[in-house]
Amino acid sequence: MIEVKNITKEFKKKIDQKKTISFLADDNISFEALDGEIVGILGPNGAGKTTLLRMIAGIMEPTKGEVIIDGMNHNKDSIEIRKNIAFLTGNTKLYKDISPYELLYMFGEYYGIPKKKLVKRIKEIIDKFDMKSFQHQKIDTLSTGQYQRTGICRCLVHDPKYYILDEPTSGLDVISSKVIIDFVKEAKSLGKTILYSTHYMEEAENICDKIVMINKGKVITVGTPDEIKEKTKTTNLRDSFFALVGGNHE
Fold first, then answer.
1. Exposure winner among 185, 217, 226, 241, fewest CB in 10 A?
2. H-helix or E-strand containing 13?
3. What is the Cα–Cα distance from 233 to 242, expressed in whole angstroms?
4. What is the three-class DSSP state of 92?
């Protein structure tokens, strides 16, 4: 289980040579992600989703609060936690002069997976993500969808328990998006826990067990898609969001 407890992230921005201002990218955020649960982190661009996921993954330290994963925290158990986490963000850059196969093999060695097991694991991943046609192609020559699939597969080699996916389908075509969404559904069926950040409300409504809606760094509601729609007297999560922030989408 992932427990996010009152985490806040403060940044400082220099206005000029004399003046610096502070702002909160995330402000007192709390929620839980249970085993075998897909939790959608929803909000518009700039809401604080990526900063939140980086703190959960241990890449960034909260200014306040803490993240507990299976009773462990990043301050004391960072290495053990990272063995069980896959983190994907759109900002992740891949080595452009090697192939997807070589990338997966390199990461498998990094995690200490025995050679025979690693070769089998890579074959399973390539088959699952329909990567046979470009597995030996240089990463620099891949399409956006192929690149995104390669990035996700890099995270899967060590078969982690937790997947932290930041906008995994952003900018992808329908086919590439479906491959990723089908993978997320399958991972859930295997008991994995997935944090799934997106600004595509319809996508989240389709796959998520629980929704954490964020706006301007604050949680505005937590609940199942049906609970949120019932609470806001709406028929879809997009309208629910606008109802909660007092906005208008027309």
1. 226
2. strand 2-14
3. 12
4. coil
* Higher pLDDT pick, 18 / 186: 186
**Average pLDDT of the residues of the chain:** 89
CA-CA distance, 62 to 10, in Å (whole number)? 8
pTM: 0.84
CA distance 219 to 30: 8
Is residue 218 within a helix (H) or strand (E), and if so which, with residue range? strand 218-223
- How large is the average pLDDT for residues 22-38? 94
**How far apart are the C-alpha atoms of 127 and 15, rounded to whole Å?**
51
Six-digit token pair at 226? 């049906």
Residue 82 backbone dihedrals phi, psi, to 5 degrees: -65, -25
Distance in angstroms (rounded) separating the CA atoms of residues 122 and 120: 5
Contacts of 45 (CB under 8 A, 6+ apart): 199
How far does CA 249 lie from the centroid of its chain? 26
246: CB partners within 8 A, 6+ apart: none
Using alpha carbons, select from 143, 182, 180 the residue that is nearest to residue 165.
180
Q: For residue 178, which amino acid is it? A: K
Instruction: Report residue 61: phi and psi, to 5°.
Output: -95, 130
Phi, psi of 196 (to 5 degrees): -125, 100
